[in-house]
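ingest -> validate -> predict -> emit
validate: passed (alphabet ok, no gaps, 1260 aa)
predict: started
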Amino acid sequence: MSSAKLELRLREYAEWEINAFLWISLITVTLGLLQIVVKLFRLRHHARKIPGPPCSSFYGHCPLLSTQSLTEVLAESHEKYGSVVKLWLGPTKLLVSIKEPALIKEMLSKAEDKLPLTGRAFRLAFGQSSLFASSFDRVKKRRVTLSTELNGRLLERGKVIPARVVDCLMERIHDILGKGNISCKMISQHMAFSLLGATIFGDEFFAWSKATVYEELFMTIAKDACFWASYSVTPFWKRGFWRYQHLCEKLKCLTQDIIQQCQRNCKLISGMDHNFDNETAYKRMEAALGGSSSFDALVSQEPSGYLQAREEPCRNIMGVMFHGYLTTAGLVGNILARLATHQDIQEKIYSEIVMARKGSGEKDQQSVDNMLLLLATIYESARLLPAGPFLQRCSLKHDLTLKNGVTIPAGTVLVVPIQLVQMDNCSWGIDASQFNPYRFLSKKGRQCDQLGNAEEYVDPRQSSFVLNDPNDNAAFLPFGSGSRACVGQKYVTQGIATLFASLLDRYEIRLQPGSEKNPKPTVNNCVFQLLPCPEIDFVERFNIMAQWPGHDDSQQLIRRDRSMVSISDDNMMMRQIQATHAPDGREVDVKPLFNLVEDILNRATFQTDIDETDAQAHLEIEDNAQQAGFLAMIDAISFTIDRISCEIACKALGGSDAHATTLSLFSMLSNYSWDAKLVLALAAFALYYGEFWLLAQIYSSNQLAKSMAILKQLPSIMEHTSGPLKSRFDTLNNLIKAMMGVTRCIVEFKDMPSNYITQDAPEFSSAMAHIPIAVYWTIRSVVACATQITTLTGMGHEFVISTSEAWELSTLAHKLKNIHESLKKLMATCYRHIEEKKSHEAYQMLVKLFDSIHIDNMKVLKALIYAKDDLQPLVDGSTKRRVNIEVLRRKNVLLLISDLDISQEELSILEQIYNESRLHLTRQESHYEVVWIPIVDHFIHWDDPTQKKFETLQSSMPWYTVYHPTLIDRAVIRYVKDVWHFKNKPILVVLDPQGRVVSPNALHMMWIWGSNAFPFTSLREEALWKEETWRLELLVDGIDPLVLDWIKEGKYIFLYGGDDVEWVKKFTTAARSVANTARIPLEMVYVGKSTKREQVRRIMATLAVEKLGHFWQDLTMVWFFWTRLESMLLSKIQLGRADDHHDPMVPQIKKLLSYDRDGGWALLSKGSQVLVNGHGTTVLPTLLEYDIWKEQVPIKGFDDSFIDHHQKIHGVAHPCCRFEFSAHSGRIPASMTCPECHRYMEKFTTFCCCHDDHVPGSLF
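emit:
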């Protein structure tokens, strides 16, 4: 073969190969594109069955997402399209959001994971880790193992947070305070870091010299991690990224360093002293490092001395710290903000802590298992602030079919909008947007019934309350769910609870002065907005605000009254005080003695001006001083007072240590109770201090006093009181006032009635637990004041107080003020408890009183209306003068019970009925009196506008009124709400002359029959209904005389209503046309609508302009028509006849009220006989189709022809029936039958606002 042919053949072969390759490539690409197109069409096909907003472009909903956040878009979509909605993020990217908890649980258990952003952030920072592997099986297995380790071994560690955590935490806080105020965010980051470090590494973490550097480095990396992870391509070209990588390497080295230190300590201790704490630390390290056998198996020591830890365990530790720090800091910050803005919950948690400490054998260890409200607060804070807006999953391999029938195609991005789920009213109640930790508590045996409010959770010790497991609620997702759930949820929750138990035991969390008083979160379009980050302060509780002798001045001069003693020193001091306490039962009436001491110190205080208003109190003291019992008591204790006074003076002159002097006084007073110790010590000081100032006040006018004053150098001292000594006396005055305040509280605790608050009541026992330390610091202040006076009289004005002594007096004053504030809070809590007891007792008395038989109504009325012999609790509406309650004796009394929002329409109609009854003085109906009882909750702030509103209402009423709402006791308010079912809507309770309740609410009778319903009893109500029939007069009687005239004339009358002006025009035109054609006398009356007053007014204007028919120009009459109609149904409900099938009036009343809620309606009558009561969708077509049935008129008559044709249309249309009962209704029926089909109706919860001003809330 020639070379030319060979070359040709080779060329042809090459071309054939190239063509084949091109064809194969083309076919492959085509098949790939076809496969993509098929997948796209398949995705689009399956997505069509999933509800969601329509796409406005080929690129999906991206234009919509450019103007709103994804969460807001999903909130609107879920509200409109249901629990499963779709969004197109691009031509081929489908996102499906699931909101229903049951479907979420199913989806999370079926759908495979997709690598979350935090996993990428960790990988960029520290490299690969099995915690965030892309393989579903690998990550699931590894995280289950780690979860077992964390929630097993470290869970025990979480219950025993080292005692140094709070101390180190406060060290850091005071360092920050030196630079300015602290915010929740700043301190929560440090708390989260300290908590995780202490839990994982133990006490060694606080001894580590590089802990502060480690924390700052960790915060920096955590702050920048998600920023660098947000790049779709790792930004190797950016210099900042390499600086970030360098910081990450330093963090890994520091982590290895702390591991090495822990290993070194564990080995050293295991070879020397095997105590419990270090064995626990050893096991803790083993669990944290992910080891399976021993700590030594995880790390090895190189010859160079540097630790070479295995990469995976080290990364596990950093992974737990990295992600635990971010989420824990957010949760801790939210808890701090919630506690700072909800002081009532904080105080109840503190009561739990006190009770737990009281029942625990170890002082420094808190058991949080019984602190139900603390745990509930953590769960509620986590619910309101989830770690992120979404849980994201991706169904990668197969379609996912949910139990509701929705099929989600493979490749769809599945998300759970956590914020929407955890703010959903269906899952959490109508207060889902509010902070309410009581939702996680329930009564034992009723776990499905949430506690819901603070009033029921009174006694933290009661075992009748249980904590609901939040994970039982599928809508609780702050820690995630499924295989990507937080692996350390249990131990972190336990650690946070233990940390806050220790923190709140020693500190009170408050808002910084000047910061927002009550920052609250907001909900915008169902999207939870983060709580503002307030600036907070930690105020030490006085039971640990101890100063221990032996500390130098530099250590004591610490900002914000920092605690100057460790817990062990504080406990030692308390043991010393308790060791001297041995009461032998002797009683001292401390209150008159304290009054005498208070009078001495008030008059002796430097430059105190005695007000003339104190004369009465001084007279009382003189009266007490003349009583034989008081004089005998003074005689018995005078020796003790003299001894104490001498002891104080001698110790002060000898320069004894203040703490030692205080303990010696406690020893002298060992046989007395705590309050007696304090008042006796204060009396001794008053004797000493009073003598000093008595001479100072009279030495210029009394020669004997002048001679004694010279010996004490008083003239010289008094000459300098306006100069160098003024600040010293001012400091003494402040301290003495603080001493008096604390003593007054302790004496008041002694006088609390034991029949209303017992020793074991948590409020009282909590207060009693603080009394010893309060007494100690007050007596310690007595010693300090006496020392200053003694030194001053000994050295004269030349005495210069040292810095430490001046600081001591100021610190003691500040300390006692804090003690006083805390005692006042505890006292307020105790008084609330007493008030609750008294209120409950009064309530039971009311219940028993109304169950008893009386000869007249005086006992009942005096129990309802606060009345004393010298008080006139009523105001006569006719004369506007105050009168005694005797004016109501043996009369029928109608109690008009309402709040201050009673409408003028109600008052106007009621006044008209009342005045009509007064015109016929000889009639029996006039033998009743109306009394207005205003119900205003005592916690509502009573200001000038409220007072003016009350006075305006009171002046407009012609009947008797209570002089002021404060005369109505809380027990009465509770009785009115619980027994008489008052819920802000006025009721009229009827009492007969013997004080018996003969009608729980006669307002319905009053609206329907006026004074004819006298004596307004339930029996009279039933009798009146028996006399009634379904006729037009029942609806319009007393409203429009013209309609009554039409009834007498036998005319056809249309009553009609609605808020659609076009429908009204069509109806009136059609009705007039039929009347003219049929030649029947027809009148029409527009009665408006129960709501939407402005719309009704516009329709009336149209009727007037176009002369379309009659209407009631006075809107009060429209209101009265609908109120009477509502009263008819409420009256039937009150009598238990709401579903009486044998009563023909009930379904007709129900129909009218139901039609009023939806569109127009009309009622046709001939004279008083009602022919048709129909919805607008049936009555108007009947009129418009007159040509169809007009042939029947000559045969059947107009009445029957109209009724028959209307029935035919009604059988096809079947308009829905609906009733809406206000939450303020007195009695809401448990069920209701439909007036059309007589089946039981479905029940819904509805929120409604019709924007009507000055209109009472309608029931329907």
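The chain has a mean pLDDT of 74.
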